[in-house]
Amino acid sequence: MTFTFRPLDPLKDAELVHSWVTHPKAAFWMMQDATLQDVERAYREIAADEHHEALLGLDGGEPVFLMERYDPAHRELAGLYEARPGDVGMHFLTPPADTPVHGFTRAVITAVMGHLFEDPAVRRVVVEPDVRNTAVHALNAAVGFVPEREIDKPEKRALLSFCTREQFEKAVRA
Predict the structure, then answer these.
(1) How far apart are CA 154 and CA 138, in angstroms?
(2) Confidence category of residue 20, pLDDT binned at 50, 70, 90
């Protein structure tokens, strides 16, 4: 699978993204009760934020997943770990599928990581998934993430994990 990326348009894409983030399978996205207006507002705020961006992953021009990139020294993890130059934070969400495609989510996280590492300034990707989200921990490990420790965030207990460019390249070659 080959994916392309484009910036999420908070107005044009809100309805689609709302259907994804409020689905029961997206419980760890923590927007289950969000209204369409809540989603629109949240992504307008991200679009206006110099330290955060939202992208849609496209397959054949059609949106098939959501990706967020953020500066962990300024958003999400500010003050919760020792940020290094070249760190970038990431979230991704694959929507529910009527007919699941084997390997799709792994292809998505691999594409997301590849996209992040296309930026030569990125040295390490940082993630902070909910400690209970065992499915994403397995996906993270598959692309080279190494858990460091559990941390308390206002909204969850998270597993702080890191993946360097070298760890990613080794994992995807394996």
Answers:
(1) 24
(2) very high
Q: Enter the pTM of the model.
A: 0.93
Quick check: 102 and 79 in contact, CB under 8 A?
no
Mean pLDDT calculated for residue range 152-165: 93
- Please, are residues 85 and 119 in contact by the beta-carbon 8 Å criterion? no
- Provide the token pair at 139: 């996906």
Q: What is the pLDDT of residue 61?
A: 94
**Measured between alpha carbons, how far is 53 from 10 in angstroms, rounded to an integer?**
11
Which residues partner with 156 through β-bridges? 153
Contact 52, 75 (CB under 8 A): yes
Q: What angle do CA 103, 122, 119 make, to 5 degrees?
A: 80
